[in-house]
TrEMBL record:
Taxonomy of the source species: Eukaryota, Metazoa, Ecdysozoa, Arthropoda, Hexapoda
Organism the protein comes from: Mycetomoellerius zeteki
Gene Ontology CC entries for this record: cytoplasm; cytoplasmic dynein complex
Gene3D superfamilies: Tctex-1 (3.30.1140.40)
Protein name: Tctex1 domain-containing protein 2
GO biological process: microtubule-based movement
Superkingdom field: Eukaryota
Pfam families linked to this entry: Tctex-1
Amino acid sequence: MQNSVGHNSVQEAVDIAHEEEEKKNVNLEVLDDVEETAQQPVYQIRPHLHEKFKPLSAKEIIHDVLFEQLATKTYDAQAAAQWTKDIADIIERKIKDLQFKRYKYIVNVVLGQQHGAGVKIGTRCIWDAEADTYAYDSFINVRKR
């Protein structure tokens, strides 16, 4: 009987030691997971509220650039292609200077002569309604030839 009791005590001690070893291994695995998670990069998809694009600021820039570039010009079909590129570049540069983070900018400039004909332009995009927005302005030069 004593042998049986001694054997049980030894077995219990072995079982306890085995359980403690398993707990250590589990704790080490948890620590490894925590360390891996801590080292993984965190991706921010949307800008913070103070970093959001401000359409009013962009609209002011667009308005000013259109006025500066077109107020003294008379429509010229040959020059219009270069004017649109120049205006788009200036607007893009000035809006980038506002440093809204996490945005890509699309600047679309259309020039046309007011000569009784209508113009229809359609654009489609895929965007995030919570973060993406737009700004626009129109300029009509009342100068006559």
